[in-house]
Amino acid sequence: MQGLTPDQLSFFQDNGYLIIPDALSQDTVKELLAHTNQKLDDFSLEGHPMTKFSTGGDDGADHVGDAYFLESGDKIRYFFEEDAFDASGNLTKPKQRAINKIGHYLHELSPPFRDISLSEQNAAIAKSLGFEDPRVLQSMVICKQPEIGGAVGPHQDSTFLYTDPPSAVGWWFALEDTTQENGCLSFASGSHKRSPISRRFVRTGERGKEGTGFIENGGAKFPAELQGETATSGEDEEVYTMGEVKAGTLVLIHGNVLHKSEKNLSQKSRFIYTFHVIEGTQKYDERNWLQPPEKGFSRLYGSS
């Protein structure tokens, strides 16, 4: 299978993201949407802790961090939109229209998503990006529901999936057309070269009473290929480029690049599927919120 072309690789290295149209066939997109909608129909509210997905603002104090979330690394679980509830805690939408995301082990437990995740094509792309031992982790469908799909502020993926040095790259597949109206991505082009990973999102507290929060990053702040870079701008100074794309598009997202999406106030959902890849040869420690399953993170290629 073909990896990235020289022009695609050059664009990614310069800008920190890359848009690849028609990475999935429309038949595959329809299959994945049908599979997702079936899961939304089938999951039960009985016994569900009704965990809401929250980014927790700048300090992360209210970021989702309960056991249902922290133990989801080898399961398929359902997280609600914050605005899907009224003041009394009752759902204001049908459950299928109230879910923020499904995660975080779709790339192993869901055959259709496994097929498009652990593929020869993605192995070829990872090889183009220079991975020696690419490991797939944190796969999820993000629903961005009509009217209530929450905004996600500027962030860097390596903050949440930290290796030392940083190595995360996101694979982001549009399952529906993404537009300005329904909350498409925006990128601060080139910010991966000037924005260090200065904080880490980690587990906090004692075992059994764990939560999540942000701490100062004492390790490497730029990936190996960008060692020597220094911070040259702040988040408030960045200019963002809108990334409207059609269903079937793949977007590659560098772990240091700043990106965001706005709230979906439209009547159209914005379903996407995403997973991340880290370098298996780099240190991934026990402080990260997501811990590897018993068999370890999934390999795209590399020795056992």
Please render the helix and strand layout as text.
Layout lengths: L5 H10 L1 E4 L5 H17 L24 H4 L5 E5 L18 E6 L1 H4 L1 H7 L2 H9 L5 E9 L9 E4 L13 E6 L10 E3 L11 E6 L6 E6 L24 E3 L6 E5 L4 E3 L10 E8 L18 E2 L5
Antiparallel strand pairs: 1-11, 2-3, 3-4, 4-13, 4-14, 5-12, 6-11, 6-13, 7-10, 7-12, 8-9
What is the residue-mean pLDDT, rounded to a whole number? 92
Number of domains: 1
N-to-C CA distance: 22 Å
Q: What composes the largest sheet?
A: 8 strands, antiparallel
Q: What is the approximate shape?
A: globular
Q: Fraction of residues in helices?
A: 10-25%
Class computed from helices, strands and strand pairing: alpha+beta
Q: Tell me the name of the CATH class.
A: Mainly Beta
Pfam families: PhyH
InterPro entries: Phytyl_CoA_dOase-like (IPR008775)
Cofactor: Fe cation
GO molecular function: metal ion binding
